[in-house]
Design goal:
single chain; mainly beta; six-stranded antiparallel beta sheet
Length: about 80
């Protein structure tokens, strides 16, 4: 994907925000892989306070949490 301006791509494991960048975001069964060719891409990873910034020529893989235990919201 080639982005000019602000673009938000929502993947299975993590949403990606790009500002004038060229990147590929691939959803796989075990997570999301984001490869950046040009510019910078910001990835919001669940469970981390700060978003991850990936620069040109790099890639970042976010592992999807499968089969997590969900807390019962009705119990008080």
């Amino acid at each position: 994907m080639v982005a000019k301006g602000v673009v938000r791509a929502v993947g299975g494991a993590a949403p990606t925000t790009a500002l004038s960048a060229s990147f590929i975001s691939t959803d796989r069964c075990d997570g999301s892989l984001t490869e950046v060719a040009k510019g910078k891409v910001t990835i919001a990873v669940k469970g981390q306070r700060k978003p991850v910034t990936v620069k040109a020529g790099r890639a970042y893989f976010v592992r999807q949490r499968l089969f997590t235990v969900k807390k019962d919201r009705r119990a008080g």
